[in-house]
Amino acid sequence: xxxxxxxxxxxxxxxxxxxxxxxxxxxxxxxxxxxxxxxxxxxxxxxxxxxxxxxxxxxxxx
Length: 62
Description:
0% strand; 2 helices; flat; mainly alpha
């Protein structure tokens, strides 16, 4: 029905981009040998991001 729009500061976008680039460089130097481990690492990274958003959102409600 209604959409929630979340504005992301430019600094947060830059931080996310830098982390993504650093991870790509790391993976090019040390390629992951275990595809299951790689999927688990990606899942935990997205879980951490969701947790950070939820935690930040709680402070806004107070």
